[in-house]
Amino acid sequence: MQDKYSPADVEKAAQSHWKAIDAYKAVEHDPRFPKGKYYACSMLPYPSGKLHMGHVRNYTINDVMYRYLRMNGYNVLMPMGWDAFGMPAENAAMANNVPPAQWTYSNIAHMREQMESMGLAIDWSREMTACKPEYYKWNQWMFLKMLEKGIIYKKTGTVNWDPVDQTVLANEQVVDGRGWRSGALIEKREIPMYYARITDYADELLAYVDDKLPGWPERVRTMQTNWIGKSTGVRFAFPHQIKDADGQLIQDGKMYVFTTRPDTIMGVTFAAVAAEHPLAIHAARTNPALAAFNAECKLGSVIEADMATMEKKGMPTGLFVTHPLTGEQVEVWVGNYVLITYGDGAVMGVPAHDERDFAFAKKYDLPIKQVITAEGKEFSTDGWQEWYGDKDISIVTNSGKYDGLRYAEAVDAVAADMEAKGLGEKKITFRLRDWGISRQRYWGTPIPMIHCGDCGVVPVPEKDLPVVLPEDCVPDGTGNPLNKYEAFLKCDCPQCGKPARRETDTMDTFVDSSWYYMRYTSPGADKAMVDERNDYWMPMDQYIGGIEHAVMHLLYARFWTKIMRDFGLVKFDEPFTNLLTQGMVLNETYYREDAAGKKTWFNPADVDLTLDDKGRPQGAVSKADGQAVNIGGTEKMSKSKNNGIDPAAQIGEYGADTARLFTMFASPPEQTLEWSGSGVEGANRFLRRVWAFGYAQREAIAAAGSPLTAAASSDAGKTLRRELHKVLQQADYDIKRIQYNTVVSACMKMLNTLESAKDADAASLSEGYAIFLRLLNPVAPHITHVLWEELGYAKAHGDILNAPWPQVDPAALEQSEIEMMIQVNGKLRGSVVVAKGADKASIEAAALANEAVQKFIEGTPKKIIVVPGKLINIVV
Ligand code: ANZ
Ligand code: ZN
Questions:
Q1: CATH class of this structure's domain 231-430
Q2: Which atom belonging to ligand 1 lies closest to the Cα atom of 337?
Q3: Where on this chain does ATP bind (predicted)?
Q4: What CATH code would you report for 817-875?
């Protein structure tokens, strides 16, 4: 055994041992694990080239869970794969002139090595790679099935078109309305795309987040609920006689609106439509100013959060519709806050009770008519007040027959009247839109469709799957290279056999991530996307990933699962039983600012801090030139702030166990984690102490036969056992609830206790160190593996990997002595240590003999009351 801790040697030894015994291969129904399966999985990484600290944290949490559960008898699965399709590969390809495939595969190889150096318990035999045909074939298969069942359909959608580069751009490639490469003004184009009917599942998706996913964080459930955005209200029409150029009534003479507040219908003073609404388009034909305004609205954001905060603008159309209940004429405006994609793209304007309408009416001097009141409230048009829109306390007023009704009653009454007139009814509206899955990009799953001059658009027959994506294209920024790739394009029509052309759009990469975690369960399955092994592992017991995926990825994955269920491929409703969203990794930022205000960011590794005598940072200088840099505050590690810490460099310097220990210790998994160089050094110092203790005790422990349990024969042994089992009890509770930071602090306490118990008997020491090593093992698997071997535990009991989780021994917790408080006339005056189980007489004698207490006693006390185990009250 080496006398000094050498992480490089230790980690190499442990990792090659695991490799040799194929330690992490998970087998269904493995008889070694009586507690059954546990599927713990991290969100799959994009193969960007190297691991970042967010990955390290995510996978370490997963790995700690794995090792802990395995020692507790569970058959645990921890798989890994690659979200290998997507735009960054195309961008990198353009920058380096290599095909995305080549860039992606070499990144994967590199990142896999980095993961291996972390000592993760990954079953690599289940690795999946989204850009491999054996995987994406099943995306295509599902696409065809969904198309056949009408769950996927085609309609025109709006895309960003760059007229210079002649290409469709993703939203993030549009910067201030211009193409990111060409700088050209972006146009909106309508092109045919495929959509998946996720809205058909909106109710079920909502019902489950509401109350059937107790293992999910409240916050994520709320985010999903808001994204689905269910609103209950009334959809009704304002009749009109407005005719288009051909003399046809526009929309059959009915302008429909959706409202959640039909109880305010008598307060309507205007109507507003989106710029894309047929009435807006009609009015713009003869009104150039309105046409210009409509164009401006269309350029604006379509993000709903922006809608709430942006300035409300509008313009009258000069058109009027009829109020369905009063018969009054209502003027139609175009409003920039009305979304064409929500409801009917038109709203009834009730300025008195809707905050947006209020702002709009104030700005354009439209009438404001109060139709809602509430107990003890005064209405004034001077400024908006919260209660104007509060339906929980509302009472209808100024509304004729509806006066005095509460919200729910008023909704029913108005809905009934609309229904009687044939103009409307109650309706549920969702904010959720169908999922557009077409992307006009090369690096993705080819959509398996064929365009034939005679037959139209024809699905690829199932037997011809997969449609293989060529891997040798280099995109050049001028659109999808598949459009010029003859060998890919050319095919025969499956229906008539004539020469035809393949679809060149590919699928949104959210398709890949919607079911990869099920492919892990069934590697190599070639008859179906998953096989019976999936029934064993799924649903997943614990999913771990970033909060940034709380909405879209999780929603699409849940939707996809429900489709698979409806196709009879799986038997469960929800894929992820428990969800953990880990916090972000933060680090200090450093910068210099030039005269023009442009900031240059310095990596923390290239900066020296000057500290004051309390160790607080006073200032910072660049290591390169010794000149001052500004301290910019703690922020999420990112390229843009150059404050990332390279895990590979950390592992090289301190070893993987230090990096793991630091990230687990620095904060609980769900909280943000602040990087700290001195924290890392502290973690490393601790591991050196762990080694030193093992080295010092190696002979004593081996000589005792490396027992895992002891019945202490010495007093020092008893004290040691009591201390360690007490800490173990708390740590055991913490590790179960994924509070890994306090598990590490428990390890630190245990080592202190062990170090100060040199007099304890060898068996107690052996037991104690074995408890300690097993508790530390999930967090620092390498050093504990090697120490377990070096101290003879492996020889006596097998690998630490398979060792039983340490159990609290209730006998060890029992105290042989207890401390009792002493009161004189009810006032606390001192305390005394007595033997546990001591009789009343000896307790009384001990209390009376206590010096601190004697000062308060004269003569014989009147009475002595003993509360066993706690307190002695002397009455004088
Ligand atoms: C009149 C009204 C009065 C409204 C009132 C609210 C309060 P949620 O709850 O988010 O579903 N609305 C309807 N369609 C719209 C569209 N295409 N673009 C922008 N806003 C639209 O919101 C429903 C409310 O949003 C509807 O109820 C409507 O305004 C507006 F005191 O109708 B309300
Ligand atoms: Zn044909």
A1: alpha beta
A2: 19
A3: 639
A4: 3.10.20.590
